[in-house]
Amino acid sequence: MKRIAFVDRDGTLIEEPEDFQIDAYDKLRFVEGMLAGLQALQSAGFELVMVSNQDGLGTPAFPQDHFEGPQQLLMQLLESQGVRFAEVLIDPSLPEQRSPNRKPGVGMVMHYLRDRSVDLAGSVVIGDRDTDLEFARNLGARGFKLGPKESWSSILSQILAAERRAEVRRETRETRIAVELNLDVQRDPQVMTGLGFFDHMLEQLGKHGGFALDLHCAGDTHIDEHHTVEDCALALGTALRQALGNKRGIGRYGHADEGEGSAGEALILPMDECLVRAALDLSGRPYFVFDGRFPRERVGDLPTELVPHFFRSLCETAGITLNLQVRGENAHHMVEGCFKAVARALRAAIQRSGQELPSTKGAL
């Protein structure tokens, strides 16, 4: 999904004069840090959209041609430095007209609200007024306000260093699930599904995956375990995909730790008599291959047939390619080894370094 940076103009990109109208070339002055800020946002994968109120534009008090010259010069200067806006949206109405297009109204950006390929929760609004923050709330995006305590540099640090978090609620006639995920924080997992051994396995994902995981499920375990296991996997996969965002800077592939192989190889994890191999790619393309056979039908309250089904469902919603192999004699060790191996491969794949997108396709 694409993220948008909705950026105000006057007071945000260019200094706002006392008469609030930039209608002459000599009034055109850049706000400190804005050029580097726009370049960094583009490098981080944000699409730039300018959204500005221009009171009375096109009236005798603010002729259109007085606006166009400085505006075109601004755009040319930005483009000469590699900064390109996907769209420029200008509302010319006066406050008393109460136009739905005027910020903080969202009339000018309704097409983004309707576009399911836009990640509004991961998008940002940058401006210099409280109305810009209100505009952000109306969009469902994060808002940032320039001022004495917030510069372009400090705002940029907050945006690019933001934790990769997700909250997912999934309710059906069979299960009610709440998942909270933070890929950039490590803490003890909090899991409660009504299935003790399954809880223990999900805890392995959070602990060995190196991320904060809270998952609670109320399911129809009085019928059987299937719906709880499957729906927890679907909800967790959805949360993982949302938290990863545009995937810039991630390792993408699961790989072995030092002494166990090089980057890009399968993670080989021993657990007593069993051996598990997990190879993982956060490709955006769901695919799961399982090679193994468990020696008994259940471990605790978890049917072993649901172990590969869990990982298949996780791959479907998270967009993961996963090859998982297990050999052993003790079913408990084999199941736990599977969850630990996938967690360790996932830990390497989600690690972030820089802002490069690890794909020649330009999208993951």
From TrEMBL:
Requisite cofactors: Mg(2+)
Keywords linked to the UniProt accession: Amino-acid biosynthesis, Cytoplasm, Histidine biosynthesis, Hydrolase, Lyase, Magnesium, Metal-binding, Multifunctional enzyme
GO terms under biological process: L-histidine biosynthetic process
- Give the region (Imidazoleglycerol-phosphate dehydratase) as residue ranges: 164-364
Q: Report any Pfam family annotated for this entry.
A: IGPD
State where the protein is found.
Cytoplasm
| Reactions accelerated catalytically | D-erythro-1-(imidazol-4-yl)glycerol 3-phosphate = 3-(imidazol-4-yl)-2-oxopropyl phosphate + H2O; L-histidinol phosphate + H2O = L-histidinol + phosphate
Highest taxon above the source species: Bacteria
- State which Enzyme Commission number(s) the record gives: 3.1.3.15, 4.2.1.19
Q: Which GO terms describe its cellular component?
A: cytoplasm
GO molecular function list: histidinol-phosphatase activity; imidazoleglycerol-phosphate dehydratase activity; metal ion binding
Extract the ranges annotated as region (Histidinol-phosphatase).
1-163
Q: Per its UniProt record, what InterPro entries does this chain match? A: HAD-like_sf (IPR036412), HAD-SF_hydro_IIIA (IPR006549), HAD_sf (IPR023214), His_synth_bifunc_HisB (IPR020566), HisB_N (IPR005954), Histidinol-phos (IPR006543), IGPD_sf (IPR038494), ImidazoleglycerolP_deHydtase (IPR000807)
Its annotated pathway? Amino-acid biosynthesis; L-histidine biosynthesis; L-histidine from 5-phospho-alpha-D-ribose 1-diphosphate: step 8/9; Amino-acid biosynthesis; L-histidine biosynthesis; L-histidine from 5-phospho-alpha-D-ribose 1-diphosphate: step 6/9
**Main location (coarse class):** cytoplasm
Positions of Mg(2+) binding:
8, 10, 128
Which PROSITE patterns does the record cross-reference, listed alphabetically?
IGP_DEHYDRATASE_1, IGP_DEHYDRATASE_2
Residues of the active site are 8 (nucleophile), 10 (proton donor)
**PANTHER family membership:** IMIDAZOLEGLYCEROL-PHOSPHATE DEHYDRATASE (PTHR23133:SF2), IMIDAZOLEGLYCEROL-PHOSPHATE DEHYDRATASE HIS7 (PTHR23133)
The entry assigns this protein to a family as follows: In the N-terminal section; belongs to the histidinol-phosphatase family. In the C-terminal section; belongs to the imidazoleglycerol-phosphate dehydratase family.
Name of the protein in its database record: Histidine biosynthesis bifunctional protein HisB
